[in-house]
Amino acid sequence: MASVKDEILEYVVDEYIDEDSDTEINYDTPLISGGIVDSFSMISLKVFLETKYNIQIPDAKATPEAFDSVNNIVELLKEYNVE
Amino acid sequence: MAYGPHEKNLFQEELNSIKQAGIFKEERIINAPQDAEVEVEFPPGSPEKRVLNLCANNYLGLSSHPEVIAAAHEGLDRRGYGMSSVRFICGTQDIHKQLENKLTEFLGTEDTILFPSCMDANAGVFEALLGEEDIMIADRLVHASIVDGMRLAKAQRDTYKHSDMKHLEKKLQLHQDKRMRVIITPDLSGRPAGERRSISVFWVKSTLLPPRWVRRWAVLRAVAFQAEKKSWRCAGRRRDPTCFPTPSRR
Fold first, then answer.
1. Probe site for chain B from A21, A44, A49 (most B CB atoms < 10 A)
2. What is the dihedral of CA B31, B62, B121, B72, to 10 degrees?
3. Facing residue for B159 by CB, picked from A18, A41, A51
């Protein structure tokens, strides 16, 4: 069974990396500040997390910093008992 | 807006940081009608220069066309200046309805409503039409005014990869439990330079969208919203046939 971390990484690759791109990302790759995810398309990441883990992340918590890497997201999810 | 020294300092610091980031925009003061070439005073107070105008939305030169200017004068003579109210109080005149009816006929749509600007339309339409049970699924390169409009609405939001219909369909499936799913596509300005493929497949019946997309979305019971201000020659019953292939060839 895939870990939460791997589930998020797989989603990010599928959602934000083009099939013909050679961009590789890991758990620490900067997503927002690295230009992979912009502030508008970040809402899709939020939708995914809320749907997948059945939680509600308030906009105040869904900040570019909190979503800037897979590891940051994993830390955020711990607040919602998702581990 | 009334404010004290504390607020003024806050605004000044913000302005300073914008200037330091190199993204502060100075106004270009134009001392002439809009045209391909205009007289510009930039920075303000500098000697006037005649420059080529490559940044206006005046694609067809209508803003300084003699017939348009004459019609505007006639409108002033017949109906005066200003509406004195918003449309739903006493700001709708017969000439507004005439224009809306002509646009409806031209575009082959059910009806038309005019807004003062495209920005106003994009800011107002989602909030007016959608509720919390609905979802807006937008192309990631939609105009900033649409992003603002989506933020104002109560409906849920999601995005799909630019012009990626497979990805969009995946999102439509994901959100099939929503009351209404609205697909929001960008206009030509939202397409990267040189991306001719997307432009060439544009097709219009009631909207500027490829019919195979519209047919597919109808099957999936999705609603399409198209923000388009630059491709009017590709729209309507008298559209330019060079814009896209005819339906029989698709």
1. A44
2. 80
3. A41
pLDDT tens, position by position, B167-192: 999 999 999 899 999 988 876 544 44
How far, in Å, CA of B220 to CA of A19, rounded?
25
List the single residue in A40, A44, A51 with the smallest CB-CB distance to B147: A40
Residues A17-31, mean pLDDT to the nearest whole number: 90
Q: Is B174 on the interface with A (CB under 8 A)?
A: yes
- The CATH T-level fold of domain B118-249 is Aspartate Aminotransferase; domain 2 (3.40.640)
- Range 40-69 of A in CB contact (< 8 A) with B: 40-41, 43-44, 47, 51
Q: Do A47 and B156 touch (CB under 8 A)?
A: yes
CB of A24 less than 8 A from some CB of B: no
| Fold of the domain spanning A4-78 | 1.10.1200
Q: Where are the domains of chain A?
A: 4-78
Q: What's the pTM?
A: 0.79
CB contact under 8 A, A40 and B174: no
Residue pair B224/B137 in contact by the 8 Å Cβ criterion: no
Percent of chain B with pLDDT over 70: 79
Burial class (CB in 10 A: 0-12, 13-18, 19+), B126: buried
For chain B, the structural domain boundaries read: 62-107, 118-249
